[in-house]
Design goal:
Elements: H1 3-40, H2 42-47, H3 51-59, E1 76-79, H4 94-126, E2 132-134, E3 143-145, E4 154-156, E5 162-165, H5 169-172, H6 175-190, H7 193-206, H8 211-235, H9 240-249, E6 260-262, H10 269-277, H11 283-307, H12 311-314, E7 323-331, E8 338-344, E9 350-355, E10 360-370, E11 376-389, E12 392-398, E13 401-404, E14 410-414, E15 417-418, E16 429-430, E17 433-441, H13 445-451, E18 457-466, H14 467-478, E19 481-482, E20 492-501, H15 502-512, E21 515-520, E22 523-528
Parallel strand pairs: 1-14, 3-5, 19-22
Antiparallel strand pairs: 2-3, 4-5, 4-6, 7-8, 7-17, 9-10, 10-11, 11-12, 11-13, 14-17, 15-16, 18-20, 21-22
Length: about 525
């Protein structure tokens, strides 16, 4: 499991919580926006759109309490296709690889969505070239008169917002209509509606694959205009007819404006005009709506926080900065196992290898990571090699992933009991490698020290093996690196040494072959005497 795979797991875990939170909050808004509009006014209905970003934020907050641990039985994975070579990612890699691909596709779609929005915004701003400044003492925001009549009225941008008027603004609208339009755009600027548009575009880019996101941005823009209309008419309630006339005189927006508020974009103008005829709620109802909205927001945020555990809480007791991984390896059906214990950081690899007298060997990489339910995940990459004799060599590469609770063993079995090779007529060959993986939280110094007791000594009881195989066995056990193992013979012999230093064992093997053993640090070389 590489760093991209681990990042994919984390991204998808967090992203899934964001999707659930956004979906639930948007459905709540969809159900309540029209009733809220009738009872408490369009301004309160627009404020319902605070719920999705608040719910998304709540889904990412860390939890103080630890999620309950679900007790699951250990995982046992058997890989029995050793008789043929497999690609390194053939077994088990898809468990992780698809996550990385999903994250890449997700990010690519988000980047494309943002790029398209940026292009549309740039095209709109490009139409403002040649615009002239308009001095308007009634507004503290810069006001521009566009060079064409198909641009504006609009509020453009989130920061450094500008009010844009069409070139024929004075000719198309009378003095009262001009005042109402400027009041409308100034209200947008005062309410920071450009920032709402920017936030909506970011959410759509994040959830570009979600149909509800595209509906939500259209509904938000519509509610935004209705809320702005209501705010303007609270100050100019006697000008409803002139306000409606100004809407009808305004052309539909010919150019998309992702971050900004056109005066009459592709919103249902008839509905906006119909809303102008309705009596606005009084102050008491608006305040009551604000209180109920605050209670609703607290309830939605609390519900999301309670039902979607954070990535930290999902792993429960599995979260740590160190993990102990115990690895027990039994080869060729032998009851005795080779034991390894490693202390690892999350995502840190350890590399191990081993060899058996039957010319069965393996090399592996192991990494420990916390996952949901208090479990620990062990990602592996294991390469095996079996020499059947007669020039027949079978290899296998696999990347299985196992999950288990801390302290429980998960087992992977490679290979199978195959028919006899050409040198062993009638006798089946057991070419299995059984790897038991027991991860635990933290690093126990006592268990680590006991596992590597007498690190410099080794015992050999090998029969009918070559000196080269015996030297490779000692090197693996003691952590030496053989520079030229091919200097040793392949003749079969017996080695029986009890608790001798590993370096001495290598010297004795070299002496049997008439070689001098040169040891420099961890590097071992065999030279002629």
């Amino acid at each position: 499991m590489n760093s991209l795979d681990l990042a994919g797991i984390d991204w998808l875990g967090r992203g899934w919580l964001l999707i659930l939170a956004f979906t639930a909050a948007a459905l709540v808004v969809a159900a309540l926006r029209k009733p809220c509009r009738r009872l408490f006014g369009t301004e309160r209905a627009f404020q319902l759109w605070l719920l999705p970003p608040l719910a998304m934020l709540a889904s990412q907050l860390p939890h103080v309490t630890v999620a309950p641990v679900v007790v699951l039985s250990p995982v046992v994975s058997a890989i029995t296709s050793m008789t043929n070579a497999l690609p390194a990612q053939a077994t088990g890699s898809s468990v992780v690889d698809w996550r990385a691909w999903a994250v890449l596709i997700w990010l690519l779609g988000s980047m494309v969505s943002l790029l398209l929005a940026a292009i549309a915004q740039s095209r709109y701003r490009a139409r403002l070239r040649g615009a002239t400044n308009v001095i308007d003492e009634r507004s503290r925001w810069p006001t521009l008169r566009a060079s064409g009549s198909d641009i504006g009225p609009a509020l453009v941008g989130a920061w450094r917002s500008r009010i844009v008027l069409p070139a024929d603004f004075e000719c198309r609208y009378d003095a009262t209509e001009q005042m109402l339009i400027l009041a409308h755009e100034t209200t947008h600027a005062r309410r920071r509606d450009g920032w709402w548009c920017l936030l909506a575009q970011l959410v759509v880019a994040m959830f570009w694959f979600h149909p509800l996101a595209w509906w939500a941005i259209a509904a938000l823009r519509h509610d935004q205009e209705l809320a702005c209309d209501a705010a303007v008419l609270r100050e100019h309630g006697t000008q409803r007819r002139r306000y409606a006339n100004a809407m009808l005189k305004t052309q539909s927006a010919a150019f998309a404006l992702p971050v900004g508020c056109p005066w009459s974009p592709r919103h249902p103008v008839t509905e906006r005009i119909a809303m102008l005829k309705l009596q606005q709620p009084d102050l008491f109802r608006r305040r009551a709506g604000g209180i109920l909205l605050a209670v609703l927001a607290i309830g939605v945020v609390g519900a999301v926080y309670a039902t979607t555990p954070s990535p930290q809480a999902k792993a429960g007791d599995g979260i740590s900065d160190r993990y102990t991984l115990k690895i027990d390896v039994a080869m060729a059906g032998h009851p005795d196992s080779t034991h390894f214990i490693r202390c690892l950081k999350p995502g840190e690899y350890t590399e191990l290898s081993g060899i058996d007298t039957s010319k069965l060997s393996w090399q592996g990489r192991f990494v420990v990571s916390p996952v949901a339910g208090g479990q620990l995940e062990v990602g592996t990459q294991v390469d095996t090699r079996f020499d059947r004799g007669g020039g027949i060599i079978r290899t296998q590469s696999a990347r299985p992933v196992v999950r288990t609770l801390p302290g429980q063993q998960a087992t992977i079995v490679f290979g199978q009991v195959a028919d006899a090779g050409p040198r062993q007529s009638g006798k089946p060959e057991n070419n299995t490698i059984k790897i038991g993986l027991t991860p635990s939280v933290g690093c126990d110094s006592e268990s680590l020290s006991s596992a590597v007791a007498q690190p410099g000594t080794i015992s050999l009881n090998l029969k009918n093996v070559s000196a080269r195989a015996a030297a490779e066995y000692v090197a693996v056990k003691a952590g030496f690196v053989l520079i030229n193992p091919e200097a040793l013979d392949e003749r079969q012999m017996t080695f029986d040494y009890a608790e001798i230093p590993a370096a001495a064992a290598l010297h004795m093997i070299g002496m049997i072959e008439g070689k001098q053993t040169m040891i420099e640090g961890k590097q071992v070389r065999f030279v002629d005497k």
